[in-house]
Amino acid sequence: MTNKIVNEICNTFFHTLPTKIIRNNVGLAGYVYTVQICGDKYVLKISDDKNIISGSTYWLDKMKYLDIPTPKIITENTSTSPYYFIMTFISGKDLGIVYSKLSKDQKKNIAKKLINYQQEIKKLPMARGFGSLNAYEDYENLFNTWEDFILSEIKRAENGIKENNIFPTEYVSKVRDLIPDFREYFSTIKPQPFLDDVSTKNVLIYKGKISGIIDLDWITFGDQLYFLSLTTMALLSMKADLDYIDYLKDEMNLNKKQEKVTELYVLIFCIIFMSEKGTSFNKNTPISVTNHEKNHLIKIFDNYYEKLKY
Fold it and tell me: Which of 52, 87, 121, 276 has the CB geometry, 3.0–4.6 Å to 71, for a possible disulfide?
């Protein structure tokens, strides 16, 4: 994707060229730019995958009446490639960028607010099944049970690990072998909506508070604990403290079984993180991994695996 395409899109809709174009290194399946038009900022998201764009605009439209600070859609194109949409700009930086500068009270308040948003999104109807869906009618990504979805996540990680050949697949086998112990718990999960990718990214922070929730390419239906474990894994990979996780858990009031489930989910995200090393996504070069980074992920895996085994 080039600035030339950004200029063409802006000229088509705004009838003028942007005075500034900034490529935002966010998202894995699209290209996101902040553009300045006549003194105002907008966000332009472009993708070769129509589902990414239609999924984002679909859910932003569904959520526009909820008490969640999401961008507003200005225009969209899902008819011809490149597919794109333009939305309002929200000031702030990803949680992961500012995390080390936040006070304990700020982290606590952010956790409280985010759980409020997770409760708010439950006002949307349940789906007919489980999974990360571009729309309620997205039957291609729909699973009959939450366990089926979890197994598909493990399989996705396995495929990536095999393809990139950086980590051995034995880590995948260890996680898969743990699944039967959680089968009874999985059977209790309902296909309720939750914000799954609001971890150290996609949660915008401005002046120590949440200013926006972004990058809503899909909504996941199933166990809300999944987002908690993704956030845990993201912070662990950053070698950051887990104060924020403790505050989230306090707000969610987890029982002992749920605590164990979150540990399993951390392991799943650990192998997903492993699988992404060596993948380029929308970057020019693959995500490289040093021996130090590799050993760090292995250490995280071993620590959480021991928690579950003993």
Answer: 87
Query: Phi/psi at 83 (nearest 5 deg)?
Result: -80, 145
- For the stretch 18-62, pLDDT in tens is 999 999 876 556 799 999 999 999 999 999 889 889 988 999 999
Q: Which residue carries 């495929």 as its tokens?
A: 159
Would you say 267 and 301 are in contact if contact means Cβ atoms under 8 Å apart? Answer: yes
Task: Give the torsion sign (CA, 159, 133, 147, 307).
Answer: positive
Q: Which residue, 243, 237, 241, 239, is CA-closest to 266?
A: 237
Are 124 and 62 within 8 A, CB to CB?
yes
The Cα 191–Cα 131 span in angstroms is 8
Does 82 sit behind a cis peptide bond, omega within 30 degrees of 0 on the bond before it? yes
Of the candidates 109, 96, 119, the one whose C-alpha atom is nearest the C-alpha of residue 247 is 109
pTM higher than 0.85 for the full model?
yes
pLDDT in tens, 89-103: 999 999 999 999 999
Domains and CATH numbers, the chain: 3-88 (3.30.200.20), 93-309 (3.90.1200.10)
Kindly report the length of the chain: 310
